[in-house]
Amino acid sequence: MKIIGTGSAHPKCAVSNEMLEKFLETTDEWITERTGIKERRVISTEKLEDMATEAANKALEDAGLTAADIDYIICSNVVNEYVTPALSCIIQGKLGAKCPTLDINAACAGFIYAMDMAEDKLKCNKAKNILIVCAEEPSRMVSWKNRSTCVLFGDGAGAAVVTAGDELKAIRLTTESMADVLYYQRKLEPTPYIDKEENFEPLVMRGREVFKHAVSNSNKDIKILLDETGLTTDDIKYFVLHQANRRIIDAIRNFLGVEEERVPHNVERYGNISSAALPALLDELNRGGKLQKGDKLVFSAFGAGFTTGACIIEWAK
Length: 317
Ligand code: UT7
What we know:
CATH topology of the largest domain: Peroxisomal Thiolase, Chain A, domain 1
Radius of gyration: 19 Å
CATH architecture of the largest domain: 3-Layer(aba) Sandwich
Structural class: alpha/beta
Number of helices: 10
Number of strands: 13
Bound molecules: oxa(dethia)-CoA
Strand content: 15-25%
Shape: globular
Distance between the termini: 13 Å
CATH class of the largest domain: Alpha Beta
């Protein structure tokens, strides 16, 4: 597999920490110190499927392809207005593509899970060009009365077009069932027969536990992949880490012992946009002219589940 195009799209409504201070018992100082986040983009008038389509179109253009060239669409999404059809079906229609599509939910690690699936399809010659779209609106999962969660997230979309190649050097996925640490349960329709207790609540997160798991598992994943490929941190141009929290990013960077410049971040501008964070940050690096052919990149993400995913790729463009 190799990545041949990237794209991203963010909502227009920027919500600063100061704006949150007006209706929450919080301060810019607390949020900045604990998370590094200064503002997040939140859906107001946009539809998630339109943002996803915008990111996908940009990735196709960057790859020099059109929707007709795509053989499969994988969409990573945790929540959106439609339970059915899948978001990927809606995106397919908006793009004017004709290929099969599938949604996956591996929470914030979704981009790596999607790359793993894409690699398998390419290996089996079941597709030539695959579009991965990560589109997320976690702002609709949190209670905006809960200062512990709503300050952390933002909405957005990131996309990548992948095709056959041997630039995916190593990939690792893990899942450890820990549903009580980070979850969101939404209301289903009532029936005359339901006779059990049901729980409907906005996103619940045991922040400290997630923090510890995130740091130790990302460190472990990256170390395993480096050992597996015989590479060292010096061989890696950028460590593209999940953008959940600046303190988590810094803790992983300290473990790796690498300079700040090699661990890019945009969490301060977008907050945690779940699985869209990695492709959106990759798109920023790509469009900012920061990537050269042959550069090796590490990706690492973690999320509800608990899921983790990490991989090493060589930049092919
Ligand atoms: O994709 C996965 C997504 N999740 C994450 O990556 C989150 C990982 N966890 C974290 O980043 C951190 O645990 C948080 C940023 C969520 C919280 O930081 P913390 O240092 O673990 O704080 P805490 O949850 O232990 O809370 C400390 C205090 C509490 O007050 P008391 O009980 O000590 O009086 C909270 O009520 O901070 C309070 N607090 C706030 N205060 C001001 C929690 N949220 C806020 C807030 N403003 N927004």
